[in-house]
Description:
Residues 30-248 form the Solute-binding protein family 3/N-terminal domain. The protein is an alpha/beta fold.
Amino acid sequence: MRMRSGIIAVLTCFIYMFSSTLAWAEAETKVLLAAEDSWPPFADRTGQGLSHQLITAAFSIEHIQVESLVVPYSRALMMARKGQVQGVFNVTRERSTEPDFLFGEEPLFVANASFYYNRNRPLNAQNKWQLPKGSVVGIIKGYEYGDEFAKLSRQLQLVPVASQEQLLNLLLLNRIDAAIMFDKVAEGFIKRMGVEEEILPAFSNHQSRIFLAFSLQNASSPKLAKALDEGLRQMKQSGQYQQIISSSRL
Length: 250
């Protein structure tokens, strides 16, 4: 009887250890990320785009499965800061974001942003530093606009909005003097709205190194950042990275 009890105890212990190992392995091979919903062609409301392709492919090389929650960008940042997700898509690495997130070494890509204006209301400036004091400029709530923007914004009147369409509509209605938009994103929305003749780029605001930013609240973030870096490097060496970039026509 004692021998049978001992065998049962050993088997129970083995099953517990095996189940725990499986649970640990499953946790280590999945990552939950917040993806913004309004930044095509990089990330859209359907959970598609260049960022999704690059992140999924890079993690796949390291045998990590990606699960994405598609939410507005400001909410995605908040979720990562609170540790509700392990990372957040498409964050510019700059002085304002480095204290809040863990970044790897490899950016997903580089994106350019410019000031856009209504052809019927030209800007009286040749570059961003020449914008008249008090110029009304539309931006997306929560977006990063480069390390110089903190200084530049002191001379501007900023109008934060929730979507790219709102920025363009404000320009069309002459409610703002300019809007800062990432060029590839602006290109798609301007074409979709049929306002190529009305809304034009003026001059550059900044160039962003775009990252998947990891939550400081998650103990696995350093390992995940390292895995993503390694996956991206292997993709670049094999040519897979350039194939994905080329297929997205950027």
